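Researcher: I'm preparing a figure for a lab meeting and need a structural model of a single chain. I don't have an experimental structure, so a prediction will have to do for now. The sequence is pasted below. Please return the structure as tokens so I can convert it later.
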Amino acid sequence: MQSHSQLNSADRPRILPLVLLLAAAVVFLVSCGPNIIKGRPPFISISSMSLIDDRLAADFDIRNQNGVPMNISMIDITVTVNGVQLTRENREFELLIGANSVEEVNVEELPDEFSRNLLESLASKEVKSLPFDLEGRVRTVEDGYLSFAHKGHLYPVPGKPGYFRSAVTRAKGLTREEQF
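Model: Understood. Here is the structure written out token by token.
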């Protein structure tokens, strides 16, 4: 009997670290479980832009960065170049974007003379690129108003006169707007 009780008391110090290690492993595995991202604003970028027959067309990619679907009910997107508004889309809008998916929105308008001259100077390669600011917000059914802002540059598309592409150089405050 004494040898059995001596074994148990000798094994106890070994069991405690094993139990603690097992508990730590369980906590680690639970923390590595699926984390669904919610409430993040969409990443909106210019997928293409063109100036054909004095008509400005812009395609915007709206990327849902969340692990759940996003129901957009309003969009407000403004692109400015050198502080001058190049294009703007501000309207009620019904768009369902699946989790981690992308949808495209097309905007067409007649640009003013200054905007047309800016894009024509880029198309004719008088300037190599045009710096732009893209900012705005969306209203979602799930999270209310979500703001976004990016800086980038517009470049002419080689071999396609009047067509432009963009490169985002910096994303600014992607935030949820609190309603008071």
